[in-house]
Predict the 3D structure of the following.
Amino acid sequence: MLDRIREWFFYDTGRKDLIFTALVLLACVALFSMETGFESQVDQEAEHVRGEVLATDDSDVQQFGIVKSGTQILQVEVLEGAHSGETHRALNNLVGKMELDTVFSKGDTVLLDLTIDDGDVRNVHASSHYRLGTEAFLLVLFAGALVLFAGFTGCKALLSFLFAALAIWKVVLPSFLKGYDPILVSLGLVAALTFIVIFLVAGFDKKGLAAFLGSFLGLGLTCVLALIFADPFHLQGVVRPFSETLLYSGYAHLDLTRIFLAGVFFASSGAVMDLGMDIAASCREIVHHHPRISPGQLLKSGLMVGRAVIGTMTTTLLLAYSGSYITMLMVFMARGIPMENILNINYVAAELLHTLVGSFGLVTVAPFTALVAAFVYTRH
């Protein structure tokens, strides 16, 4: 039985790769067509269309220092949809928070929310600048560069990217909002994503198996560490942006702390998969050139490769996490707050937990993958 499983898994990989790629593509189609259960929250009579600002009236806008509040009145023209060519009066409400407010100027292309009643436009709201065209162009540019460089492997990488995006939007977020355990949901999705991404890109061979098992062991340890150190850090999930808004939106029953902890190992999963694949691929190349290498020698070589990669990957996590909070750190420095006080602030402590636990997962995935590779590659 074990021989049949090994024969199916390690041989005739080309056909299995095509079948698996087709299955992932079907899963993407299924996810895209699946409803989240929150579509009813959106006004079905509303339309979201592109428009152009013809004129602005700032007479009701008040400025307090650098902050503006009030209502900006716009004259806009609808550029698409059933009401294309019509001009309407639109409102742009400013709440006095620069990270949320947008002040429009004449000639801007904006996203309009039209409230329709009996086929007529009753209310128009300008929500933001229209960026979909630029975003689509950048996405196509990225996809083209990936396919041009990596060929069919690049196409499979794009497919895994699409599956991850759809799974987050269609499965993870609705599950969190419905009250399912964020740790279990995230761990299950991370396992599925790790399996799909690695075997879709690497194929069903020993390299894929070593990378998957090593990565999953590292992610499992990251999850355990996040749960262990949550209480000593005395952190709450409200340290994340919009957490309080979510509670006030009718979801006060959610456990934001567990959502935050789920995000700790969820965010590091990509780097862990990357490192696991690096170690597995390096071990395969070593075995290819030295077929008679012993398990101990291959393990040692894998650990040596891991040591060289871990240093840069850990720094990568630090830079990625801290880059989102540069302005916050600048505020602390500008006010002369002592370092010991900074390190005890909730936001900073949360990022420290995020970085250290995620980095610990990176440190351990290298020996895990090297150990699995030494066993898989040298057993016949």
Remarks:
- The chain has twelve helices and six strands.
- The two ends are 15 Å apart (CA to CA).
